[in-house]
């Protein structure tokens, strides 16, 4: 008879944060305790996301733990939670659960250089996210880019169709009803998280004594909009918990539009500052004689495509081009030097026939040699 596999169980419920029970340090300690002597570990997930750095530590630990890990989304998995999911060997969603994927977000206030640095960091995170999603879905990083445009909500079936999960299991929180497609578009991670949170209860029952999800039938509260939570989350003004759903939705839209305008303005300012820096760098190189006027467009394109740092590196290794006078003088000197070598036996007439310009240069570079040739021909 085959030996029954021993399974450990650990939960990650709530926001991923540098402090508290959902910090990387605390979670890893719980996870390692759950996998002691276990053949595989079930991770019950219900999170609205959180800190990218902490989430990355959790992802890396699960990925390299050496034990098969199965993730089961019991409620919602948003933002960084969806990245953590991808570390598991198998990912399952309860049929009434949700996941939401979007690009990493962050704020910045400061100089253009500081804003560029922050944007560079976010782009690096986006690149890592794309690799994770591409690996799970079997798609290219280019194909999964659309997942990072806006907030992308998935039902369990939609996540299955998108190859983001491996299967769908029966609901654990049976009292939570699904929202419509239109309602889903208006939801925030916090609001949907709260719908399931009412059905989560720590008990001494369940696998390995780590607690289970308790069924609840609080249908009325779950179907209502979390107005107070939304007002607090978005910092809404002009509305209260007694306002209608439509008024709350309109206030959120106004807030989102304002945030988008601020983000667009910040992005435009950053791009303008970057364009000015590239232009100034190219103009300085042209002024120093490193590039010619006809080359400015080429070097502007290098800066815009590869970044101003790459442009500065390229231009920094270039030396100013010699002037026409310097080229002429240098060429004449070289020619005169050659006359002392390979043309040492030339007479005046041969110089006049073969290289009259070289003869002129010889008069400047080696006047004594020139005078000797002249005298040998005309004063002999």
UniProtKB/TrEMBL annotation:
Record keywords: Coiled coil, Cytoplasm, Hydrolase, Protease, Serine protease
Molecular function terms, GO-annotated: ATP-dependent peptidase activity; ATPase binding; serine-type endopeptidase activity
InterPro entries: ClpP (IPR001907), ClpP/crotonase-like_dom_sf (IPR029045), ClpP/TepA (IPR023562)
GO cellular component terms, A-Z: endopeptidase Clp complex
Gene3D superfamilies cross-referenced by the UniProt entry: 2-enoyl-CoA Hydratase, Chain A, domain 1
Claim: Cytoplasm is one of the keywords in the record: yes
GO terms classed as biological process: protein quality control for misfolded or incompletely synthesized proteins
Residues forming coiled coils: 213-276
Signal peptide: none
Domain of life assignment: Bacteria
Cross-referenced PANTHER family: ATP-DEPENDENT CLP PROTEASE PROTEOLYTIC SUBUNIT
Protein family membership: Belongs to the peptidase S14 family.
Protein name, as recorded: ATP-dependent Clp protease proteolytic subunit
Organism of this sequence: Bacteroides cellulosilyticus CL02T12C19
């Amino acid at each position: 008879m085959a030996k029954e596999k021993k399974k450990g169980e650990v939960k990650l419920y709530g926001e991923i944060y540098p402090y508290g029970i959902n910090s990387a340090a605390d979670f890893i300690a719980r996870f390692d305790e759950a996998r002691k002597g276990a053949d595989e570990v079930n991770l019950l997930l219900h999170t609205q996301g959180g800190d990218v750095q902490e989430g990355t530590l959790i992802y890396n630990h699960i990925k390299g733990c050496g034990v098969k890990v199965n993730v089961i989304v019991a409620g919602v998995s948003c933002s960084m939670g969806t990245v953590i999911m991808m570390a598991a060997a198998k990912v399952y969603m309860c049929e009434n659960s949700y996941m939401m994927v979007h690009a990493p977000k962050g704020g910045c206030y400061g100089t253009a250089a500081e804003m560029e640095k922050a944007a560079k960091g976010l782009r690096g995170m986006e690149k890592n996210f794309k690799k994770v999603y591409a690996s799970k879905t079997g798609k290219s990083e280019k194909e999964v880019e659309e997942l990072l445009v806006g907030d992308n909500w998935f039902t369990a079936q939609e996540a299955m169709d998108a190859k983001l999960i491996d299967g769908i299991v029966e609901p654990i929180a049976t009292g939570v009803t699904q929202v419509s497609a239109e309602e889903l578009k208006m939801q925030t991670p916090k609001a949907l998280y709260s719908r399931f949170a009412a059905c989560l209860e720590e008990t001494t029952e369940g696998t390995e004594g780590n607690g289970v999800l308790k069924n609840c039938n609080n249908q009325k509260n779950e179907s209502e909009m979390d107005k107070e939570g939304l007002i607090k989350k978005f910092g809404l003004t002009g509305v209260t918990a007694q306002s209608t759903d439509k008024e709350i939705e309109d206030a959120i839209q106004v807030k989102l539009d304002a945030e988008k305008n601020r983000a667009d303005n910040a992005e435009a300012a950053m791009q303008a500052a970057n364009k000015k820096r590239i232009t100034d760098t190219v103009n300085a190189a042209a002024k120093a004689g490193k590039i010619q006027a006809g080359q400015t467009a080429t070097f502007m394109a290098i800066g815009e495509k590869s970044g101003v740092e790459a442009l500065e590196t390229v231009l920094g290794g270039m030396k100013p081009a010699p002037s026409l006078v310097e080229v002429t003088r240098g060429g004449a000197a070289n020619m005169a030097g050659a006359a002392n070598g390979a043309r040492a036996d030339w007479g005046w007439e041969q110089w006049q026939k073969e290289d009259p310009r070289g003869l002129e240069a010889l008069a400047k570079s080696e006047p004594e040699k020139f005078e000797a040739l002249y005298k040998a021909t005309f004063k002999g």
